[in-house]
Amino acid sequence: MSLCVHYSPCNSIGVMPQFCTPRTRTSHNRNWDLQRLRIVAKSNSDATQSTSTSLLSFLCPLLKLFSARDPSQPRNFTFELATSSLASLSRFAWGTKSIAESSLNKEITSDLPFSLQLFEFEACPFCRRVREALTELDLSVEVYPCPKGSVRHREVVRRTGGKEQFPFIIDQKSGIFIYESGDIVKYLFERYGEGRSPSSGLLESTIFTGWMPTILRAGRGMTRWEHSRPDPPPGKLELFSYENNPNARIVREALCELELPYILQNVGEGSPRMKLLLDASGSKEVPYFIDHNTGFQSGDYTTILSYLFETYSTVIL
C-alpha cells in the first residue's frame, strides 16, 4: 500500500523554517504537528518499488566502496562530466523538456512560497522519476535531501509518514502527503498537468534504465558527507536546473551529500520559467546557483562545487 496523507492546517506549516513565510517561524510551528494529520490508504501503483528499494540498499555500500572518494577533494572533471553525460544519455530525453505552456504560468516568480516539498536523495532511481516529472511539468519545488546518514530530513519523513521511504512529497496547497514514485507522478500530472500525461515510457523505463545514472556515477548523491554542517543555512539556496542536465546533476549530488535544502527551479527546454533564469544570470545555461545567505552566484558547476564544500563543511578545506 502506498500512503497518502491529508492534513488541515490551522496556519501555514513548514518543515524547515528558512523556507517558510514569517508566520511559520514561531516555536510551536517548527515541527510537523502530527495531530493534524489524517492518513488514508491508497492502492499501490508502484509494486516493484519495495523490491527495488531493497536492491538499492544492497548496492549502496558496494557503490560507496567502489567510489571510495571524498566528495570535497579535487576531482578529475573530465571524468566527472563524462560519466554524468553517459548517465544523461541512459535516460534518453526524460527530464529534459518542459511540456507546460506559458499561458498556464502567467505569474511566474521566485519569491512566492512553494507548495511542493520533495524529500529524496539524488542517487535514488525512483526519486529521479519524480524529478523528471517535475521538469516536464515545469514545477519548482523545495528539495530536502535525505542521504544515508541524514541528521535532519529523514527523521522528518519518519515522524510525518511513519517510515523512511523515498521519494516522499508534500503538497501544502492540497494538504496531501504521498509515498511511492508512481503515485506521486500520477498525482502531479492529475493536479498540475492540465490534462497532459507523462512522456511515453517515463514511468515504465525507471526499472530498466533508471539505475544507470546511479551506477555510472558510482553512488554520488547517496551518502551524507561526514563533515557536513549539522544545521541548515538560515536563508534559502536556489538552483536553476533540469533533471537530465549532466552539469546540474553534479551540483545536485553535492547538495545532497551536504544535506542542504534548496529551491529547485526547473527550467527544461521550452520552460516558461526560463525568464527567471535570464533575469538572474543573463543566460539560458544551467546550472545556475544562488546562495541568498552570502550573495554568491555562479553558473559554473566546478566553482559551485568548490563553494559548497568550502562554505558548508565543519572543516577548513
Q: How would you portray this structure in words?
A:
It is a single chain. This protein has helices at 49-67, 77-90, 125-137, 153-161, 181-192, 202-209, 212-216, 246-257, 274-281, 301-311, and strands at 2-7, 37-42, 116-120, 141-145, 168-171, 176-179, 237-241, 262-266, 288-291, 297-298. With 317 residues, the chain is of the alpha+beta class. The protein has a domain at 107-310: 3-Layer(aba) Sandwich (Glutaredoxin). α3 (125-137) runs antiparallel to α6 (202-209).
Rg measurement, Å: 18 Å
Helical region count? 10
- Which CATH architecture of the domain at 107-310 is right? 3-Layer(aba) Sandwich
Order of strands side by side in the largest beta sheet?
Answer: 2-1-6-5-3-4-8-7-9-10
Question: Strand pairing plus helix content: what structural class?
Answer: alpha+beta
Largest sheet data: 10 strands, mixed
The H-and-E topology, N to C, reads as EEHHEHEHEEHHHEHEHEEH
Low-confidence parts, pLDDT < 50 over ≥5 residues?
7-48
Q: TL;DR?
A:
This protein has 317 residues and is α+β, with helices and mostly antiparallel strands. Helix content is 35%, strand content 15%. It has a domain at 107-310: Glutaredoxin, CATH 3.40.30.
